[in-house]
Each structure stands twice: as structure tokens, then as C-alpha cells.
Task: structure prediction
Amino acid sequence: MTTKKSAAQQGTSTKTSPKKAGIKPILRMIVLFIVIGVVYSFLPKPKPPLVIPQTSATAQWAAYGGDAGGTRHSALDQITPGNVMHLEQAWVYRTGEDYTGTKDEASAAFEATPIVVDKVMYLSTPSNRVIALDPESGRELWVYDPKINRPKGSAEFTSRGVSTWPQPGQEPAGEWSRRILFGTLDARLICLDAATGGPCADFGVKGAVELGADVGGEPNTDFLEYTVTSPPAIVGDLVIVGSAIGDNRAVESERGVVRAFDVHTGALRWSWDPIPRGPENPAWTQWEPEQALRTGAANAWSILSADAARDLVFVPTGSASPDYYGGERKGSNLYANSTVALRASTGEVVWSFQSVHHDLWDYDMPAQPVLMDVTRDGQKIPAVAQATKMGHVFFFDRDTGVPLFGVEERPVPASDIEGEAASPTQPFPVVTPALVPQS
Result:
């Protein structure tokens, strides 16, 4: 007969209840959460954004690029890396424009950069409606509709914004008050009273100047091919405007003239044609004479920059017409595809730099020339920076146009297109690297 042994005698332990085994992990989790909560309570918390009063000078964005030189710099300091995560949507304003299912649906683009002056925001829509808003609440103050005329559509359906006179540091003189100026898709330069949104009766004819006359080219009954899509430059009492041209449809397209008008009356003060029309022009030798006389475009469709203290306006020009074939415009085609410094008061060429010789690729100067200071050997040099479609950035002395960093002419492939005469070389920055891969 055998006798039974106890669990202890058999060397085994008593098993724990499954319910008790499940309680221990839960207790551990509770303790862990309590510890985390205590630690977190002592950690510094992000503070909400501070409300810091801003002066009227620092709270302005008086031009498309922030200032007349396109630096896009703001002195405002309420928003910082430490509080940006707390930003919340304050308001929404809808322009009411909807091009779905219309002839403009494919080309319409909202590209406006609003400006803010005297505590009012001004912006434009693709159809050139100008809107004034309270920037703190989004409340609509007024709307002006120029009712643009476009037969069947526009080659480009957009507006990059408006400009204002006077610029910061300049006070309205005499009877004139603040003005809003902008160009339209049907080639008008319009001046509005900033307070009411009504046309300035003393400017041009009922507040507008026609820009499409006397620029040559053959009218297109299907599309508006001579338009204004960028805000003008303001220098003193001058409003200086370029144009956007459908420049690939013909050799004899409209001329890409840059013009200055009196900001009070709309009277033409000067006109500069980027394509030479006679031997008195220094660029005449860079063209076949008979071709220069009939070629159009080389227009400044992008943003102009201005240095009022130096009486200079900086003009980024595009390709001469037609865009992709140069057999009808042989030569380097100066002043096309260039950065050109004009005397703001007269329109006289002070200096120029051509970034693309005899353009075959629609390599317009697309960016606003940026006015900045470059420090070299401890000395500040007033400079101009020009970005290009190729990804190059050229830096020039603002007064002379001399490149501040090395630029060299490098051999490039010849064209195999019959009748074409591509430039044998193109300028390349030596020091500053390209912004995009080159091949």
C-alpha cells in the first residue's frame, strides 16, 4: 500500500488563482500612469502666443514682394518657432469667383499676393476684381469690378495683385489721397481711390489708361494676347507697368514696351522698348536690322523692382517672338532675356545683363529682381539678385550691373534646325551653384 504525499513533500508549489494573476499587470499600469501624470505636471507647458502691439510701419506689406525691392521680409515678430503650433484659422473670405465649366476653367489661377497698408488689405482676383478687406476680421470693405472684356478667353487668366501710391516713407501731396493701381487682362491701367474703391476721375479717362494701343501686333479675335498680369512698380509719382504677351503665335507680335505714367493724371511720362528699333540703340548690333524692326515681345510680364533713392527700376524681360524658333530674329537679341536697370525718371538704360543669348526655350526672366546687400571683405555692397528658369542665380552691383561673383561664357551645342543660328555660348555663374540639377 502506498501513502499519499503532500504538495510540499512532492516538491511542487501551490498554483495562484488566475483572477489574482490578472490583477497584477493592471496594478502596474495604474502605478505607471500615476507616475507619468506626476512627472508631466512638473514639465513646462507651451505658452499661448503673446499679443504684442505692432506699429503701423511694421504691420504693413506695401508691395507684392513686401517692399519695392522684393525682399519678402517682415519685421513682425508675434509668430515665432515657439508659438507657431498654436495658430488657428481666424477667418475665411470667399471671392465668389468660380470658373468650373466655363471657358476660363483650364487657365484661371489665383496668384495674387495681397498688400496691407493703413490697416486695410487689398487683393485682386483672376478676373481683375479688386477687393478691400479688414485684415483682422476679413470683413469686406468694398469691391471694384472692371468688367474686363475678353471675346473668347485669355491666353493667361490671372492677376498677381495690386500696387499702392504713395509707398512707405512718402506722404500724399496736396489734394491726393491713397491710390490703388493695377493692370487688367484687357490691357488697362486702372487707378482707384483706396478709401472708396471708386475710379480716380482725374486719372486717364474715368480712372483708366488704355495700354493696348500703339504696341503693334495683329489683334486676335479669339483671345486677348496683350494683357497685364502683374502689379506695376511705384517710384515717386510714377507708376511703371510692363505686359504679358502671347509671344509664340507670330513673329510680329506686340512690342514688350515698359511705360511710366503720372500717378495723378495718367499721362505718359516715358516708354522703353526692349527691342532696338534703330542704330542709335546700343543693342542694335546684336540683331539683324530688318528682323529687329518687325520682332515683338521681350516683354516684362513678371514683377518689377524699384530703388527710389537711386532713381532706378529693375526690369526682368522675356523672350523675343516667337518663343521657340530664332531663325527670324538672329543675333543675341539684347535686351530680351535680361535684367535691365532703367533710370526711373526717364526710362534710360543704365545697365543690363543678358542671362540667355538668343533664347530658344522660352527662358524668360520669371522672378522679381531682389534688392539686397552683399557683404564682401567687411564692406556692404548694394546688390540685385536675379533667379532664372534654368536655376541659375546671378548677383549684380546695383549701381553698375557688374557681376559680384564670377560669370563665364561656356560653349553650348549648336542647333540642328534649318535656318536657326543658336548662340555658341551662354553665361554661367562660376561661384553660386545652380538651384536645380543641370544637364
Q: What stands out?
A: The mean pLDDT is 88.
